[in-house]
Amino acid sequence: MTAWGKRQLEYFFAALRFFTRLPAPAWVGHSQDQLDHAARYFPLVGILVGAIGAAVTWLTAWMLPLSLAVVLGMAATILATGAFHEDGFADACDGFGGGWEKAQVLAIMKDSRIGSYGAIGIALLLLAKWNALAELGDEYLAAEFAVAMIAAHAVSRLAATALIRTLDYVREDETAKAKPLARRMDTGELLFAAICGLAPCAFLPWQEVLAALVLVVLFTWLAARYFVRRIGGYTGDCLGATQQATELAFYFGLLCSFT
């Protein structure tokens, strides 16, 4: 293996270790340089997480009703990531719902305790995601349904990656969730992330994918504008909230094409 190839593997496993609880080889080690370049592999990690959820859903659907299989598939992705992005979504709901000034918003998001906005937000999000996936399961064949889950996880992580590229990171404390990834990506890294994020979409009908991508772009743009207006940029919780919201937007876009 070339030195370049070894570095890319290190960057990928650094992303895998940062964004999930899946194991990485011991030889990878730990370094800031790996984390500086790990964000380009965020959508590729999404493909892996989505594949885990799709596999569990597909396998359990042979023995259980689809509605229960979808719950188990969602649980598998949450276990794989350690609820990393769901936690960010809940913290963002608490922060932006309960805070007025930038300092208040950041302080509330930093608090590990969940509040009313976070609890209600994450409950509604998971309920909406379960309903959307159950509806897609009724519309799609098994293979298309699996690809739809994988594509949603990949595209939504690309949306979060776009914020790293375009916005400023606003936390200064070293223990912040996304501080290690706060270096702004260059054009080549974003292009690689886009290729990985959009690749699964090639296996779905283009009309349905187009509707889904339009909603994802719209949600991402609105989220970016909102974050800039409220706090001047993004935090790790903003990335998690964007990933969760755009994953749901992708499912909604696919469903819109059936109506």
Descriptive account of the structure:
By secondary structure, the chain is mainly alpha-helical. It has a domain at 41-84 and 131-256. 73% of the residues lie in helices and 0% in strands. The chain contains 11 helices and no strands. Helix 3 runs antiparallel to helix 4, helix 7 runs parallel beside helix 11 and helix 10 (206-231) runs antiparallel to helix 11 (236-256). The longest helix has 26 residues, at 206-231.
How do you describe this structure in short?
With 259 residues, the chain is mainly α. The chain has eleven helices and no strands. The protein has helices at residues 3-19, 32-36, 42-60, 66-81, 84-98, 102-110, 116-139, 142-166, 187-198, 206-231, 236-256.
**Count of DSSP H/I helices:** 11
Mean pLDDT: 91
Cα Rg:
18 Å
Distance between the termini: 50 Å
The sequence of SSEs as H and E is: HHHHHHHHHHH
How many strands, what sense, and barrel or not for the largest sheet? none
Shape summary: globular
Question: How many strands appear in the DSSP assignment?
Answer: 0
Measured by DSSP, the beta-strand proportion falls in under 5%
Q: Strand pairing plus helix content: what structural class?
A: mainly alpha
Helix content: over 70%
